[in-house]
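JOB MANIFEST
job_type = single_chain_structure
chain_count = 1
residues = 441
[input]
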Amino acid sequence: MPTRPAGDKHMTSNEIQPMEEGPSKGLDQISLLSSEERLKGRPRLCSDCGFCDSGLKLLMSQTCTFVRNQTRGIEERLHGRSRQPGDEGRFGIYRAMYAARMAHPNPDAQWTGMVTALGARLLERDQVDAVITTGAAPGTRFKAQPVLARAPREVLDTAGNKPCLSPSLRLIDAVREQGIKRLAVIGTGCQVHQLRAAEAELGLEQLYVIGIPCSDNVTYPDLQYFLTQVSRSPETVIHHEFMQDFRLWMRHEDGHVERLNYIDFPMDKLHGIFPSSCLSCFDYPNALSDLTIGYMGATLGWQWVMVRTAAGEALFEMLSPDLELGELSESGDRTRGMPRYMARLSQPPGQTRPPLPVRKLVAMLQRSRGPKGLEFARAVIEMKLLRNLNYIRSKFPRFESRVVPYHVYETLAPYASLYEQTFGRPLAPTAAEVAGCQEPV
């Protein structure tokens, strides 16, 4: 996801306000967005994807990933098959995987600008009539604002890292009202699931889906709070990313990069900022897109690309003249850290940090011995699957059979014995548990 540079005309000096009282939902409160007035009537789990703001909202119960996950059915429609064992369980079905970057990077981009360059290219070549993307709200760097771009420049102007919930699918009504028949959508996993599930109702002649890997987005106020807790100068952060060296990198207006070890995060102050929907999502790699463009499986300076469909192949070919291709690599052993990770998950959330000497040692070991490249991506995805499965079982146990997709248990199967030993229950649900998961929407 791209980001805006220093001197952004949309940024105000007082964007980051002190928020000493804590996350907007409270440290121990289940953060159900659907309990807010604007979102009343939506599923208990809601990521505010925007679909329910459109004229198709009556289809929500048939399409929402948080009502009934339809990953297997959608994959069978897109690919004619389900996932094969191995990396497809973690990354989704793909035809090809690359490390790539723009030969001439966009200076406004978080990485090299592949996502917005591709959206602009589709409009330049008259392959689509419009692109749904996400810009920054005026006066901010990070507050998400859906954009229906009709010109290449309008796509490029949305370059920027907005790790906040965005109701992008509310633009479906504008697409229909303007008679748009050829559409590209740049979206997150929950948006893409909804879009694919409702695809037959959209009346489109052509749909291109460019997927952005996504994990743990937050509301805009909670992003502001997060930055005040992790940065010495939150108001000057123009880009931040969770990197493969087990540190959060925060680039500031003057160009310097502030780094914070994962182990040094003040979790006792951050517990509670992530919406329940994000903690109940199992699609970090955006597996239902035509083309996924992220970073986690590639080394620093490169972007990680997964081509998934014939349409995705066409998209990659369209951009390839402007790309440099690198090598995907991997090292380390992700399974070594899983016992410690499970042990932490079994403890109450929001624990205080270990003593400083312990944190320094852990950070050193993570950087020197931890997984790298594709193995790092595997590690992160498996940990997210495990964490979110445990969250569902803890907070919304009757939802499990509806919202946990088939590949989660298969992917985590190598850890089944460790899971049962740590949590005192089988990894896979029992028949009785499945039968009992009948809670209405």
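[summary]
Residues 45 and 277 are 5 Å apart (CA to CA).
The first helix runs from residue 60 to 63.
exit_status = 0
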